[in-house]
Amino acid sequence: MVGILVMLLAAGFLSILNLMVRVFFQGYAGIGGFFPPDFEHTVLFLQTRTLFMVIFLSLLAWRIYPKAFTEIANSGTRLKSPFISGSIYFITVILLYLALGNIPAGIAITLFFVHPAIATLLGWRYKRDRPTLFRWLIIIGVIIGLVLVAPNLQGNFSSQFLFGALCALGAGIGFAVYAITAQTALIKFHPISFSLITFTLLFLLSSAAVLLLNMEVPQPVWLSLLLWSMASGLITVGGLVFTNLGIRLVGAATATLVGSIEPALTAFLAWLMLQETLDPRQMVGIAIVTLSIAGLGLEKKQSTLHGN
Questions:
Q1: pTM of the entire predicted model
Q2: Angle formed at CA 97 by CA 119 and CA 236, multiple of 5 degrees
Q3: Rounded to the nearest 5°, which phi and psi values hold at 42?
């Protein structure tokens, strides 16, 4: 029971983070709306946010895994695998932030949750892990749900809504690839060490992009940018800690099952706190995606119990 509550807290942290990104770009009730949701300002927000995340993770590492810094310093050529997965994650996060800045948070996260289905297909392609009939049904369910959630394709490809939807789907595909590559890196590194490498790489890549773009931030916005980045970084680290703790308490399969509520929880909180509305078709789509991912987690749990 404690493990389930921990995973629910993790999903809550991540859902709140999604709303924070949405408000940062779009604003609500006079709060946020600091920058337009374009590539330049998305990279800027990622830079300041990951700076605080590296600081928070470093302090956390000193407390719970002090060997992390020695492990990273002595890693040598082993850094190649986290560098590859971290570079993929960098692109994934930018696409997800672009999605959250351009379309309602509940829809963005639901479209993003295509990643378990994509990861299943990638596992079949590269690990010869052929999906079962049940997993094929899960994939079909996710696709049906995504079609229902996606905007009506009546506008052209320059429309803000369609752009955000494509970014969310791209982020979901990117996260599936990241998850596959991260598995290799996590064999060689402790999760804390891996997270430190990943977020340090994100900070360096986003900093390089900001320098190349030669961006100038108005002086009155700097304080808001730093405070918002610090808060979102702290919430992200909190979600990471609760997720890892939950996986240790209940196992990865059950964690996946509980984590599947994130799209529905994000949509509910966006409706409750930001007054974002969804039409019935999209609410049905969110429910189908959530239940499908929950079914995937349940199937993995049953496979674990039976030793498969």
A1: 0.87
A2: 80
A3: -65, -45
